[in-house]
Amino acid sequence: MRLRRVLVLAATSAVAASLLGVVPAQADPDSAPAAARALSQARAVLAGESHRDATLTLRELRRHRDDLSADDLASADRLLARPTTGRTTCFTTVCVHWSASGADKATAAYVDEVATTAEHVLSTYAAAGYRAPEDDGVRGGSGLLDIYLQDLGAQGLYGYCDSDGQPPVNGPYDTWAYCAFDNDYHEFPTHTPLQNLQVTAAHELFHAVQFAYDYFEDGWFMEATATWAEDEVYDDVDDNLQYLRRSPLTQPARSMDHFESYGLRQYGDWIFFRYLTESLAGRKGGLPTLVRDLWVRADGAEGGPDDYSIQAVAHVLADRGTSLRASWVAFADANRRPGTSYDEGRANDYPTAPPARTIALSGSHRGTGWTTQRVDHLASATYRLTRAAGMAARQLRLRLDLPRTRRGSGAVATVYRTEGRPETVPLRLSARGNTTRSVAFGRDVRYVEVTLANAGVAYRCWRPSDTGYSCRGRSEDDDLPMRLRAVALR
Fold this sequence. Notes:
By secondary structure, the chain is of the alpha+beta class. Helix content is 30%, strand content 20%.
């Protein structure tokens, strides 16, 4: 779901799979309180009192529906019912349900605009090889995808998708979708009404496509790839730039794969998929193929691989001849200079974070001693090592003592000179996570950055209470100690 704008992302498949251990969880002993919370959260979202995600909030309410009391069950069913409208106009692949009067009033011209936009989006996804949204039988009057027009702007919502065909808890997990869009988008001043319709359609209809693969997929992955998709289909609108303020670019110390119940971080994770699709070749129908391949791996339909989010990423990267560890280290380093690392980084003024720590070296203080930075899974930290003017030094010797590489440890050094482009120096670790490497540190060097990255993706999966991370799990690779020692050499 798209929220109101708030101003404030070479291993083999066998090796990748070995990094993704899971431990089954027991049945949830706290199902009734979880159901009550899901109902309360859904009420708040649809009343415009919460910034939670409506698409996934409604999914959680459906997940816990059968655990509600009789009174709460009736209330939940009212929230989960399809919207009601007075008219229906069907087109080639969608039916638009609308009202000619009242608070939800829409014009016939706007209905045509919605249909034209939605069918363009769906045809783009189809041409790129994505699965079409599933047929819902006679619900909504036909098997076409149903789009309901409501005055969602009054609640600060652009749109959402839902399904009244919740899959069984033991799978298969694919199902149909229906969606709701605002009836005019006049409440949102940041872009034109048409632009808001366009990016909402691209985002929400990607959710409809996702449901045809796995309705219960990890929330961070669903939102990040849908936000990525809206910018691919309507690149000039750039609505997703707002989320970079809370993203791996600006918050590298935070684990990427976390769905914030009351925040926006999962939207900012789109930049990770932009990085991968700019780095790895392959296009079909005008869109990069990598994200499509991720959803093929995440496919929970009958006979599908049914990988969970980051597991799908690891497998697809292995199939492309690289690894999640190598890609994560390169991504963390690229985010230190997004203006040159991304195709649109300079034009769109991509933000970046300050280094985690800056250490100044001089003639009287030529070494750092051993210093430790703790890094969580799918996160990174950067040291910046500066040199005093006139200091006699030619090289900087780096020693790293990181956790074993099977835990996801990786590092890269980048030399920033007074002139010219930065020079990236890979720091190849032993299996134990150690290395020694010297880099340039002469008079023409402004500073050297050492980025320490943690691509650890071992989890204890399917916890009784959803953690918000991949596979609803707890990482076994958090808080890894990464030790660095640097000495300036003459």
